[in-house]
Amino acid sequence: MVELKTDKSIDAMYEAGQIVARALTAAHKAADVGVSLLELNEVAHDVLREAGATSPFLGYRPSFAPTPFPAVLCVSVNDAIVHGIPTRYRLRDGDLVSIDFGAELGGWVGDSALSFAVGTPREADLRLIETAERALAAGIEAAVVGNRIGDIAHAIGTVCRAAGYGIPDGFGGHGIGRRMHEDPSVPNEGRPGRGMRLRHGMALAIEPMVVAGGTDTFHAAPDGWTLKTDDGSRAAHAEHTVAITDAGPRILTAR
User: pTM for the whole thing?
Assistant: First the structure.
């Protein structure tokens, strides 16, 4: 069931979303050659503590997961698509990094992600990141009252496929609000004019993921969480929490 949020609730989600934005900005700023993924996690965790917020990631255990997630920040490097667990791995020059973060404040949740290169970027990585961001922008632009979920999916998929990139099978965005994952599912590829109609008060986490090699298949790493590309090519991820309003889409995690 999809819960329609009141305007007051959307404002509360914006407060949670701004904590997410600050944490991602801080982690991105801290990411440099030689910095460990665990250190990035601590940077993000400090933002949570200072804000008096909690993490919807820490301890989260969906049905596919062998263990609860042990961190507040997902850090996925190079051929990791999403759900990377922070480790002692130290960033190297040219690494492609995706960070995903959530915050809960006052019973409302925000969720967002971004990708970036560390040190000297590869041109191919910059194109991949730029495509993920363009796909996100296209999805948000389609997130208007009267459109359907399929319109968001089609907008995202069109950008990704036109660039020649893969889209991981079965993964996409989701509803969000009192919990991190709510109805409806928001695919990253689909047919326009299909699916649930968008209404004022819906809140969605829209999150394109792109695979440089053009394949859609992936596998879980031995940790049971990190999803990696089957062809070993690099991946990028972009995400915002967006409220559907009569005035147009409102990005609650804008940085």
Answer: 0.97
